User: What shape does this take?
Amino acid sequence: MTLLGEVAYAMEAPECLLPHLPYLLQDLPSLSGAEDDVVGVLSEVGFPSGGTVLDLGCGRGDIAIRVAQAFDAKVKGVDGHPPFIEIARQSAKEAGLSQRCRFAAADLRKSLAKPASFDAVLMIAVGPVLGGPAQTMGMLRTVVRNGGWIIIDDAYLEDGVPPSVDYKDHLEREAMEAGLTHFGDAIVARRIQSPAGKPFNDLALEAIPKRAEALAEKHPELREPIDQYVARQIEEVALMDGPMVPALWAIQKAVV
Assistant: This one.
């Protein structure tokens, strides 16, 4: 898949709408609503002050900036969508964090191509662009020091839910966590169905359709993909209120 295709897949948007995502999402305080939970699990596991973080699929830099502020951390953010990176850089500048938050418009997979020693790597609201849980962990753990942390979110299927086209590729919790710990690493913190999720989803379902309608009026040639995008957001929220359980995990890399 091309980089553009990967970004579209992660954002659940047609490629033709990618240039318009900053407009469509401008009313949301973040792209995931997970910043409090990320800071919370990092605090819970004892993330050190002044630590180093790699934020893959960083979007507008919302989480990276919060982590930098909370832990005096140095954060490298990577995202394949240049308009988001421009926003991230401006936000870091306004927060006085340009020296501690560095953002690059690039394929996040290139950041995994050579070993590194970050204290933590984040992969939030990106989706399975690296494959299943075990395959994803095999790549993420290469850039984290021994004893460091991988912070990742996903959704697992409630036990006993019959197969459906809407969630045929999702795993139940036991299988999901088996993949996350496939290399001997340990789950040291988790957030299941965060209380922040519903208010964030409610805001998204209120704000995105309004921006989408305004965009469609301005660009009638995009009406069909815009409507498809809005319908997809509604479907995703409905799944999270039903058989899919959103979760955030902190996995500590095994010391070898």
